[in-house]
């Protein structure tokens, strides 16, 4: 049956409601609740201390790290990599993979790494150089926890060495030659993509 208001409704695929004060307060409450919940869970699952053990015994039994801070001794559980970082990062060499040089120096090889240091995209070069000198650098892929793929694509693009389409095609070509990238689905590979 019909109704008095038989106007056709126009449905759009994109309906945006304005963000009201209620939305803002709700978001703030959600962030606050999340913060306190994570703090509560962190403290709830921390190992308990036994008063009859010395601090060093408790630290060793619960896999704690002991640190002295201005006469006081502090301890906390080892998380992540624990008391020392044993991370190893393999840095791909520019000659190792066909196409990587194009992402670093352009299709003609005329763009230098030093010229890429000058722009806002200099982080691509700086991080690459830092990792080449790092004590965490792995020389063999099978010893690596992470893999760094050097590319100065933003600089190369801004200086006319490659266009966006060429960059995309070159990345596909480079990634297809990396068995360790396929092994992990790329989860352990590091790329630097700066923005200005």
TrEMBL record:
Keyword annotations of the record: Glycosyltransferase, Golgi apparatus, Signal-anchor, Transferase, Transmembrane
Transmembrane regions listed in the UniProt entry: none
Membrane topology: Single-pass type II membrane protein
Exostosin GT47 domain sequence ranges: 86-194
Superkingdom: Eukaryota
Listed InterPro entries: Exostosin, Exostosin_GT47
Compartmental location: Golgi apparatus membrane
Keyword Transmembrane: yes
Family: Belongs to the glycosyltransferase 47 family.
Protein name per the record: Exostosin GT47 domain-containing protein
Annotated organism of origin: Xanthoceras sorbifolium
């Amino acid at each position: 049956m019909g109704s008095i208001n038989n106007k056709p409704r126009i449905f759009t695929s994109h309906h945006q409601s304005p963000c009201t004060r209620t939305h803002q307060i709700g978001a703030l409450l959600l962030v606050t609740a999340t913060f306190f919940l994570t703090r509560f869970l962190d403290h709830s699952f921390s190992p308990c201390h036994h008063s009859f053990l010395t601090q060093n015994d408790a630290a060793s039994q619960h896999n704690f790290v002991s640190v002295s801070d201005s006469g006081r001794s502090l301890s906390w559980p080892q998380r992540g990599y624990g008391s020392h970082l044993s991370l190893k990062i393999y840095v791909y060499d520019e000659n190792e993979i066909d196409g990587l040089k194009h992402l670093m120096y352009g299709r003609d090889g005329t763009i230098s790494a030093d010229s890429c240091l000058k722009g806002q995209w200099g982080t691509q070069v700086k991080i690459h150089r830092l990792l080449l000198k790092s004590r965490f650098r792995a020389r063999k892929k099978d010893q690596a926890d992470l893999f760094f793929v050097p590319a100065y694509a933003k600089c190369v693009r801004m200086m006319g060495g490659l266009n966006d389409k060429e960059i995309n095609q070159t990345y596909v070509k480079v990634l297809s030659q990396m068995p360790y990238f396929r092994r992990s689905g790329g989860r352990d590979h590091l790329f630097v993509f700066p923005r200005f």
